[in-house]
Design a protein that fits this description.
Helix 3 runs antiparallel to helix 4. The termini are far apart. About 10% of the residues have low confidence. It contains five helices and eight strands. It is of the alpha+beta class. The strands form two sheets. The protein has a four-stranded antiparallel β-sheet, with no helix packed on it. Strands 2-3-7-8 form a four-stranded mixed β-sheet, with no helix packed on it. The longest helix is centred in the middle third of the chain and has 12 residues. The relative contact order is 0.14.
Length: about 180
């Protein structure tokens, strides 16, 4: 009797997840969900992709890289980390090439050029929604490097929820 199912040929290897949410496989690193840190995973390598599973559930899926020393990030894996480390959005490698909602990108650019504390950025970005930020009071003079960023509407949105509302984008590759 012929086999009626789909052929699912892969090579499975056990691996561990680093504190930076990365799994090393075949001389490359692949990001996994932040919830997978500190526990073993199973890497399924297909011809065209890598699927990483933990306790039977998929914690990451990336296109397979045949280079050496490549790091493939999926910024969605690091979104829970932003709650503890908001500065990672500005400086973190997984977010380097990630396109944010226009309102949050404006805030990020303004704070990158100024010498403001991360806490002020966090407070102002929490007031952004995925559709934009509205000013409720006039801004400080532009020449001031510590110009006050006025409060925004939709104060119930955090940067994490604003990012989660966006459609998911493909993995980013860094060499």
């Amino acid at each position: 009797m012929p086999y009626a199912g789909r052929f699912d040929g892969f090579h499975a290897v056990q691996a561990s997840v680093s504190k930076t949410c990365l799994v090393r496989f075949d001389n490359n690193k692949y990001s996994v969900a932040a919830s997978a840190v500190g526990r073993p995973v199973e890497v399924h390598s297909y011809a065209d992709r890598i699927v990483i599973r933990q306790d039977g559930r998929i914690v990451a899926e990336h296109p397979r890289s045949f280079g050496r020393g490549d790091t493939l990030y999926d910024p969605w894996h690091y979104v829970p980390v932003l709650a503890r480390k908001p500065g990672a959005l500005r400086n973190g490698a997984p977010f380097k090439d990630w396109v944010l909602p226009a309102a949050m990108e404006r805030v990020r650019r303004k704070l990158s050029s100024a010498t403001m504390a991360i806490g002020r950025w966090w407070t102002s970005s929490r007031r952004c929604s995925p559709t934009g930020c509205r000013r409720s009071m006039p801004p400080a003079p532009k020449r001031s490097p510590t110009a006050f960023i006025p409060p925004m509407s939709f104060s119930t949105f955090s940067p994490v929820s604003a990012i989660l509302v966006r459609p998911r984008q493909s993995s980013h590759r860094q060499r």
